[in-house]
Write a structure and sequence with these properties.
This protein has two domains: 151 residues, no CATH class; 182 residues, Roll (Ubiquitin-like (UB roll)), CATH 3.10.20. The chain contains nine helices and nine strands. Strands 1, 2, 5, 6, 7, 8 and 9 form a seven-stranded mixed β-sheet that branches. A hairpin with a 4-residue loop joins strand 7 and strand 8.
């Protein structure tokens, strides 16, 4: 019996010593109320071990009592997350380490109590497995940290490029050393329900915005009856953002159009997506100035509703003046669809505000 009880007793003593050390650390740093912290640890250990009383019932431990114990631990973890901010003195300082350590000490002490009671009053001999649901108490805390980290991610700020119909630049003769052939996807106009896929050629040391400007010009010369809308829909002016389409798991990588093809790590295996966006300026009360706000892609609605891919169009396209971009293949066929709803930045801000309110209510 002594060997069986030795482990929980040692765990309890270690946890108690750690609680005393944590008490003096909290008292010195003045980050949290040290008296309330110790009260939470001692009282929390007793409360967290309450499900061990279910051994006095005739219920089978597996799965009934085990599931009840796990659900109870998650509930107590949620109570801990909600109550902990009330003992914090300095909210500006990071207290995550103390918060995690306090909960760990509480769980170890509760596990010690659980094992001792379970050993004396239960007919089955698997106390460690019976006490394992206590670790579920960390789930609400880890969830709150994850949600907080998610909300801390800033909204993507796009670098928007605008087509200039007055700008013309002949770069082909000076940039013919190394050429990449890759695929670019874009909607040619607002009525497209799927992206048009085009195989294009570009030198590695050409600036991306110069290449894309030439690409649009050459494409529209080759297909004047079905050109790419470059500047605006009706009176609504738009810009362009570009990213490399991910192959599998990695997230999409945005392209800096002021850098060259090589600097943007574009190669023969790359698939570039060009999207139209609108940009409006909003007042910043901090700097007392106006800052650009990218509202979002004009084509997001279509992406969500994209249906089966159309059959590719037969034929090839040449590169335009002096060899330019050398479009060699065009796929896709345009199908008519009604007007798209404009995605506005206020919707994104409202969504972020709602998530922030939910997080604040969770941590209160």
């Amino acid at each position: 019996m002594i060997r069986v009880l030795l482990l929980p007793i040692v765990i309890f003593v270690i946890a108690l010593i750690a609680a005393i050390v944590l008490f003096f650390v909290a008292k010195k740093d003045q980050v949290v109320n040290h008296k309330k912290l110790i009260a939470i640890i001692l009282l929390g250990a007793i409360i967290l071990a309450i499900p061990v009383c279910l051994v006095f019932t005739e219920w089978p431990y597996m799965p009934s009592i085990y599931v009840i114990n796990a659900a109870y631990s998650i509930l107590m973890g949620y109570v801990y997350v909600r109550y902990y901010p009330k003992i914090v003195i300095d909210k500006e300082q990071g207290q995550k380490g103390i918060q995690i350590l306090a909960l760990l000490i509480t769980t170890l002490m509760a596990a010690s109590i659980f094992l001792i009671v379970f050993h004396f009053f239960s007919e089955i001999d698997y106390g460690l497995m019976a006490a394992s649901p206590l670790m579920y108490v960390f789930i609400p805390l880890l969830f709150s940290y994850t949600l907080e980290a998610l909300l801390a991610i800033p909204i993507e700020i796009y670098q928007v490029w605008y087509y200039d119909d007055k700008w013309h630049y002949n770069w082909f003769d000076d940039h013919f050393d190394t050429m990449f052939v890759f695929e670019i996807e874009l909607y040619k106009n607002r009525d497209d329900i799927s992206r048009t896929k085009v195989k294009a050629k570009a030198p590695e040391n050409i600036v991306f915005q110069e290449w894309f400007q030439r690409f649009l010009e050459d494409f529209n010369k080759k297909y004047p009856k079905n050109p790419i809308e470059c500047m605006s829909y009706d009176d609504q002016k738009f810009g362009w953002v570009f990213y490399v389409k991910p192959r599998f798991w990695p997230s999409k990588r945005y392209i800096d159009f002021e850098k060259t093809i090589y600097e943007n790590r574009i190669n023969d295996r790359s698939v570039i997506v060009a999207k139209r966006v609108i940009e409006e300026r909003v007042d910043n009360p901090v700097t007392n100035s106006q800052e650009p706000l990218t509202q979002g892609s004009l084509e997001q609605q279509v992406d969500a509703q994209q249906g089966p891919q159309p059959q590719p169009v037969d034929g090839e396209a040449s590169g335009g003046d002096q060899g330019g971009v050398n479009v060699v293949q065009q796929e896709g066929q345009n199908l008519a669809q009604g007007a798209r709803n404009q995605v506005v930045g206020q919707g994104r801000q409202a969504s972020q505000k709602w998530m922030t309110d939910q997080m604040n209510s969770l941590l209160k």
